[in-house]
Amino acid sequence: MKRRVLGVVAVLMAGVSAVPAAAQDGLALAQRFGALEAIRSISLSPDGTKIAYVTPHPTVGTAVYVADLTTGAAPVRIIASASKDEQIYWCGWPTAARLVCKVSVDFNLAGRWIKVARAYALNADGSDAKLLTAVNSRQLGLDGSGGNVLDWDVASKPGAVLMSRYFIQEDRAGSLKAEQRQGLGVEEVDTVTLKRRNVEPARGDAREYITDGHGTVRILGTIASNPDGYIREEMSYFYRKQGAREWLPLSKLKLADTGGVGGFNPYAVDPAKNVVYGFDDHEGRAALFSIALDGTETRQLLLSRDDVDVDGLVRIGRDNRVVGASYATEMRVVDYFDPELKKLAGALSRSLPGKPSIGFVDASSGETKLLMVAASDVDPGRYYLFDKTTRQLGEVLPVRPELAGITLAPMKPVTYPAADGTQVPGYLTLPPGSSGKGLPAIVMPHGGPGSRDEWGFDWLVQFYAQRGYAVLQPNFRGSTGYGSAWYRKNGFQSWRDAIGDVNDAGRWLVAQGIAAPDKLAIVGWSYGGYAALQSQVLDPSLYKAVVAVAPVTDLERLRAGAAGAYNQTLIQKFIGQGPHIKEGSPAQNPGSFKAPVLMFHGDRDLNVDIGQARFMAERLRGAGKPVELVEFPGLAHSLTDAAARTRLLSESDAFLRKSLGLPAN
């Protein structure tokens, strides 16, 4: 197949330095690795001639560009957020001339920051912008979601989309047509005229609708409330036969933290086969099933593994056609059900340097043109357009142009023994060109705890590797992806297993001679930050420095913080009760700490309140322990800001070097 480079690439590559990493100091590298991904989201027009992509903007937050792939002309900025408090998340194409974009704005409501999202429609040149989200001044409440596009391609109605809508009661004063419905429903909305047609009436118990990809709702998910107003711990799913309106029972899904799927969880409908695809438990691990929607409810096991969960559904195109499923062993593997795509993915990977993993991102109508991304552990990723008709492959955009010219470090899958002999999987990244022995080293537990690390590019890992550190990412017990037995009771209630595995990762680095015993540190984000801090409670002498970003530090505060939330009972059950609340809280055990601590936290973090880090700092100072807390005003959990990430990398590197006795270069 032929390869070509499209003109769009030059825009993002302009001014990018190709100075080798070894020739740059820590701050220069921090700026390059701290830069945000150039592509937040990207989509292909139905005719395959244009792309729209959301990219960071240096002053206002985010901007949307449209590029004509047929001319190769420079992309045109069509819209930008008004400030950094406003973020554009994604844009999609109802037609080749019209876009729908989702925007989120931060609001301070009674002293608490919340996010409110809205959907807008606009032409591909930025003109004729209109608010799609239904709002008016009479509403007796606030819809924070703004509605989601369920279908981009409503049959025989070009320019119309199917959107979810949370209906809110309205004040009747002065109006005979005030809305009295309350709950989640579905509307068909014309993106040009804004004409709306109700498709599914509002239901107070509705939480999810799944369509057939062409404008017909086939699946409904509901959650009932307890008498006290909090949601129950079970979700009920219903389905419709083709052409019918009656809802029939499909499945029950446990919402309480069980370590497994908890019942059949539907994801997508295939109208041609008249089945719904979803995940359920199978022999202790998640597997992919289909259930017939013809009234027989015939259930079929489509894909399972005896070592890991099958946890990804692969879809493509404007109708989100299901083409495969994926799972992560040492690397993420896609099992394509579509023979043509399976063959094509293999051929495309072989034709690109380094044989990267291929992911199909979007497709034109009829799937004649495919937008794809190719990435690996040593390649942050590049977007390509493949034309099936001409067999031509064109590079569209790089994901991280600032890293051009830097030789990245390969990520190697490893296993190491825990104290009880259990083999724990993880990933080891060594500095480029190093001997792999006697290095300063970092153990980096992942967030979650309901998560796991996977093979691929990681900006944090790669920065530290460039700075000379070996980095080990353990998938400790409490991680997802390996079945319910590995997950245990989650990484908070089973913290001794999880943190024990994290500490054993450090001991293994030393035992293998990879890490110098006096140059071992731990760095983590979110739950990983909790694990980094809690590692000091189990073994204060192991790590010589602790870096925690947005960490949970006190489980009782976390549990109490859920009071009054609609899902209060679920959160409180997830955290649990008992001795582990105090024993598993680093802020309740400050006297154990021997290593200096550096923390970073955004003051608008809606995942983990900044009060957690402030309380930890207060407790450590009270115990006479060295600690520093860096606060980022206006930033949330992910610190999505290039300047903040640059500071995080630069200052954490300086802190680690000082703590481990390394040269400050």
Q: How would you explain this protein's 3D organization?
A:
The protein is α+β, with helices and mostly antiparallel strands and 665 residues long. A hairpin with a 5-residue loop joins strand 2 (41-44) and strand 3. It has an 8-stranded mixed beta sheet with strand order 29-30-32-31-33-34-35-36, sandwiched between helices. A 5-stranded mixed beta sheet has the order 1-28-27-26-25. A 4-stranded antiparallel beta sheet has the order 2-3-4-5, with no helix packed on it. Helix 2 (26-34) packs across helix 13 and helix 7 packs across helix 8. It is globular. The chain contains 13 helices and 36 strands.
Question: What average pLDDT do the residues reach?
Answer: 92
Which regions have little confidence, pLDDT < 50, spanning 5+ residues? Answer: 10-20
What count of helical segments does DSSP give? 13
Radius of gyration: 25 Å
**Strand-pairing-aware structural class:** alpha+beta
Strand content: 35-45%
- The percent of residues in helical segments reads 10-25%
Side-by-side strand order of the widest sheet = 29-30-32-31-33-34-35-36
Shape: globular
The main sheet comes to: 8 strands, mixed
